[in-house]
Amino acid sequence: MKLTDKVLRAAKELFILHGYERVSMDDIAKAANKSRSSIYNHFKNKKEIFELIAKLEFEKSLDDSLIDTGTDRSLADNLYHFYLGQTKGVKEIALIYKSIVSEMKVNSDLFVHLNQLDVCREFDIVQSFIQNAMDKKEILPQDDEELHFLTDVIVSSLRNMQLEMILYKEIKNLEQKLRWLTVILTKGLQ
Q1: Which has the closest alpha carbon to 164: 121, 80, 81, 101?
Q2: Of 92-101, 126-135, 147-156, which gets the smallest average pLDDT?
Q3: Do the domains at 1-43 and 54-187 have one common CATH topology?
């Protein structure tokens, strides 16, 4: 196993157990059975290790969210299935990293940074759903500026619902409310 993989695995276990704030580079080095200097040859600091772990987790969640989407589905269905998968994936990540979610509530820098992970890829995915719907003439054509604005609105709306759920409370009847929201967001485009 490569050193970076070993370090990431050890750090991930420590972050799950203790949260971000209570884990040091020393702890990571000990758990990975590596010297601190060898870890610093690959990573600048603990934040860089954590960011890579978080990025990998969110990328996997995005990939898993695409399973029930496709060009044969409507825009509302694609958005619904994508964000349902995203919400379930992010919820699982939040359960695994409970202590980090607690830290996010008081550490706005950590919260902002995690919120921005993979937002560009998410934007591209949603934009491809909209483009597919325009190609199928399911919705009215949009110029590039309108397409960009529309994608921003949809990503912001559905992403904020996820964040609200993770940080503050469980949303009752999530699937029903997500369906309702995706229909509202797409209905006026027809």
Answers
A1: 101
A2: 92-101
A3: no
Judged by DSSP in three states, 178 sits in helix
CA 144 to chain centroid:
25
Query: In CATH, which of 1.10.1760.20, 3.40.50.1260, 3.40.50.720, 1.10.10.60 is domain 1-43?
Result: 1.10.10.60
pLDDT in tens, 74-111: 999 999 999 999 888 877 777 777 766 666 665 656 66
43 Ramachandran zone, left/alpha/beta (phi>0; psi -120 to 50):
beta
40 residue type, one letter: Y
- Cα distances (Å, whole numbers) of residue 100 to 8, 23, 26: 16, 11, 19
Q: How far is CA 144 from CA 51, 84, 110, 174, in A?
A: 32, 27, 33, 32
How does residue 157 score in pLDDT terms, banded at 50, 70 and 90?
Answer: confident
